[in-house]
Specification:
The protein is α/β, with parallel strands linked by helices. It has 11 helices and 14 strands. 36% of the residues are buried.
């Protein structure tokens, strides 16, 4: 690069001043700029990605997979705790002027991982990183995105403000519970979807007479997009929530009799919705029932419910690391989105389109 630059500004070149000959000045400027930009893009294409990718403790295996995809080592950071539980963070390498990416889903324990993320952002900012992009595969508190009762907080908005105040310049998230959460941020947000990974897997299964099922009215748009990609029919399950984390499935809207069904959701938490949806589909005559989701929270009795349900297989991604018990559950299949996130990181760093990943 330095050699090319010296060639472009070699001493024997007579550069006219803008005041003396404006037309000649701008013509020469553009003539020199174009080959230099072409060379820079070519060099970027053949060189491996070299900007640092750091990780908190929430999902180190995913961060390592992303770094392996980018053909680079993970950035070194020291994250420990004092005896009273306070988090201590130190970035162990120089990031001055760097375009830094920080991978940290805010999964269980949510508050601990969120504070860890905020402290790492602050440490990187004070280390003079040029730009800090928070890569949040699972955005905790996303289900608290509105005031549905009197005197309750809009927690998703507060978390977005905390990230911005800490010093994040950009956010990269995967399958937000509601797309409008992007509007809570005062920084650019790149919203990824796990659907390319899930669609690719289910296409290989080649399920006959396929219907994609939304477990509630709020997920219809997500299910419609997935059904279009799979060239499948669409059905909806009418769900009524009677209390926190407890749901009651009412009836199926759409024809599922004798058909293979995929129940699509963004989050599987206690699996109550999933199990009752599967039972409703079986009563409506479905022949095979599969389920898929981007985020496997799997709290409380989730594993027990999945194991005893009519669902043949539950397909999830690795935005959240599974417990050892969940990994041993034969009905759960985990797909990696490291490649998808890695390509998005490359696009952000190179200032190219992220949306091309979904076309």
């Amino acid at each position: 690069m330095l050699t090319i630059w010296k060639f472009l500004i070699r001493p024997e070149c007579v550069v006219p001043s803008a005041a003396a000959d404006p037309l000649a000045f701008f013509m020469l400027r553009d003539a020199c700029r174009q080959p230099f930009l072409q060379f820079a893009h070519a060099l970027r294409a053949i060189q491996p990605y070299c900007e640092p990718v750091f990780s908190g403790t929430a999902n180190v295996p995913l961060a390592d997979e992303i770094c392996a995809f980018l053909d680079m080592p993970r950035g070194q950071a020291n994250i420990t705790r004092f005896s009273d539980g306070e988090v201590y963070v130190q970035i162990m390498e120089n990031v001055r002027g760097a375009d830094v990416f920080l991978v940290q889903p805010t999964c269980y324990p949510v508050d601990q991982h969120l504070l860890e993320l905020l402290l790492m952002i602050d440490a990187l900012k004070r280390a003079s990183a040029r730009r800090i992009t928070t890569v949040i595969p699972y955005f905790g508190y996303s289900r608290q995105d509105r005031k549905d009762k009197p005197r309750v907080p809009v927690s998703a908005k507060l978390v977005a403000d905390l990230l911005t105040t800490a010093g994040a310049d950009r956010a990269l998230v995967v399958d937000l519970h509601a797309p409008q959460i992007q509007g809570f941020f005062n920084i650019p947000v790149d919203h990824l979807f796990a659907s390319p990974v899930l669609v690719s897997y289910f296409r290989e299964l080649n399920l006959p007479d396929l219907t994609v099922v939304s477990p509630d009215a709020g997920g219809v748009e997500r299910a419609r997009f997935f059904a279009k990609k799979m060239d499948a029919a669409l059905a909806i399950v009418d769900k009524r929530r009677v209390e926190m984390d407890v749901t009651e499935v009412m009836h199926v809207i759409g024809d599922v009799k004798g058909r293979s069904c995929i129940v699509l959701d963004d989050i599987i938490d206690t699996a109550g919705t999933l199990v009752k949806t599967g039972s409703a589909l079986l009563e409506a005559g479905a022949s095979k029932i599969y389920a898929c989701a981007s985020h496997a929270v799997l709290s409380g009795p989730a594993l027990e419910r999945i194991s005893g349900s009519v669902v043949e297989q539950v397909v999830v991604t690795n935005t959240i690391p599974l417990t050892s018990a969940a990994r041993m559950e034969s009905k759960i299949k985990v797909l990696s989105i490291a490649g998808l996130i890695g390509r998005a990181i490359q696009s952000i760093h190179e200032e190219t389109s992220v949306s091309r990943l979904f076309t």
